[in-house]
């Protein structure tokens, strides 16, 4: 009940920064994808925090609806993204993102 | 007051620890399992923030469906163990510096913004965030986006099937 919104937003920021770090340092395409999910999730945390913060004034539930849509889009994105990774693995026998450089001039 | 804050800090510590473990695990399967733990922890944070419906959606869709898909692909490819070191030696330190800078930016924005969010929150009405209240909004005000979402999921399904179907070479 009494959690300051700032604390939740700080947690959201930390999780987002960790996701960015993961995308930058890992070479495995699947783990990079997981870190993208981590970032989407941290954005959802911020949405829910603001929804809770503006809840008593009646505008808060729209944050919940938006998080619902973000989760639906994330599910669609994961399906296509993993299909892409499987296709890349079939042609390259590897999902190391350094190997996928055919288009580099 | 203190119990809620204590629960929140427990959740925050677990969430950050599991997120760090996702990055640090050499084996992709461990990363996926730590990510499941992270999602479940975040779901309990949603419960703490009066978002019961979103918490359940988080567990069923994220921790359930999406992570099963991840684990399935990891097992299918059987490529989970090897993690060759990056060819660029300066990349990891630079990545640390840049994400640290991003974090400092977030915190600075939070402090500078001064949105009056420090004070304890007022109570919300009984049904706030319940499936009934969210569903009512979803099927009235947001009906068209909701239907468009179903089309999006269909397109994603068709896309995944087209991308991975056998005999694609002659296409």
Describe the structure concisely:
The complex is a heterodimer of chains A (105) and B (171). Chain A has three helices and no strands.
Architecture overview:
The complex is a heterodimer of chains A (105) and B (171). By secondary structure, chain A is an all-alpha fold. Helix content of chain A is 74%, strand content 0%. Chain A is built from three helices and no strands. Chain A has helices at 5-25, 29-53, 61-92. Chain B has 171 residues and is an all-alpha fold. Chain B has a single domain (2-80, 92-117, 128-164), classed as NADH-ubiquinone/plastoquinone oxidoreductase chain 6, subunit NuoJ (Four Helix Bundle (Hemerythrin (Met), subunit A), Up-down Bundle), CATH 1.20.120.1200. Helix content of chain B is 73%, strand content 0%. Classes of the chains: A mainly alpha (105), B mainly alpha (171).
Helices and strands of chain B, in order, run as HHHHHH
Mean pLDDT of chain A: 87
- How many helix segments of chain B? 6
Name the helicity range of chain A: over 70%
**Which percent range describes the beta-strand content of chain A?**
under 5%
Give the low-pLDDT segments of chain B.
none
Name the CATH superfamily classification of chain B. Answer: NADH-ubiquinone/plastoquinone oxidoreductase chain 6, subunit NuoJ
Global outline of chain B:
globular
**Count of extended strands of chain A:** 0
Radius of gyration of chain B: 21 Å
Major sheet of chain B, described briefly? none
Question: Could you name the CATH class of chain B?
Answer: Mainly Alpha
Multimerization state: heterodimer
Provide the succession of SSEs of chain A. HHH
Work out the strand percent of chain B.
under 5%
Low-confidence stretches of chain A: none
Q: Which percent range fits the helix content of chain B? A: over 70%
Total domain modules of chain B: 1
Please report the two chains with the greatest interface, counting residues with C-beta closer than 8 angstroms to the partner's C-beta. Answer: A-B, 72 and 87 residues
């Amino acid at each position: 009940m009494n959690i300051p919104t700032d604390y939740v937003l700080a947690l959201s920021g930390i999780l987002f920064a960790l996701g960015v770090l993961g995308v930058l340092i890992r070479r495995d395409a699947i783990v990079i994808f997981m870190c993208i999910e981590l970032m989407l999730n941290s954005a959802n945390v911020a949405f829910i925090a603001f929804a809770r913060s503006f809840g008593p004034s009646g505008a808060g539930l729209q944050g919940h609806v938006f998080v619902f849509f973000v989760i639906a889009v994330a599910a669609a994105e994961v399906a296509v993204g993993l299909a892409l990774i499987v296709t890349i693995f079939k042609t390259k026998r590897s999902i190391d993102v350094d190997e996928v450089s055919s288009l580099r001039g | 007051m203190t119990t809620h804050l204590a629960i929140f800090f427990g959740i925050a510590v677990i969430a950050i620890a599991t997120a760090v473990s996702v990055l640090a695990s050499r084996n992709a399967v461990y990363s996926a399992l730590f990510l499941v733990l992270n999602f479940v922890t975040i779901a309990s944070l949603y419960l703490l923030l009066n978002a019961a419906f979103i918490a359940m959606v988080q567990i069923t869709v994220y921790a359930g469906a999406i992570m099963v898909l991840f684990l399935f692909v990891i097992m299918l490819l059987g490529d989970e163990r090897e993690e060759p070191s990056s060819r660029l030696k300066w990349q990891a330190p630079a990545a640390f510096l840049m994400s640290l800078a991003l974090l400092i930016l977030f915190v600075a924005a939070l402090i500078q913004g001064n949105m009056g969010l420090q004070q304890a929150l007022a109570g919300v009405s009984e049904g706030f965030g319940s499936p009934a209240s969210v569903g009512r909004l979803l099927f009235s005000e947001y009906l068209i986006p909701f239907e468009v979402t179903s089309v999006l999921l269909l397109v994603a399904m068709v896309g995944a099937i087209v991308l991975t179907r056998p005999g694609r070479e002659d296409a």
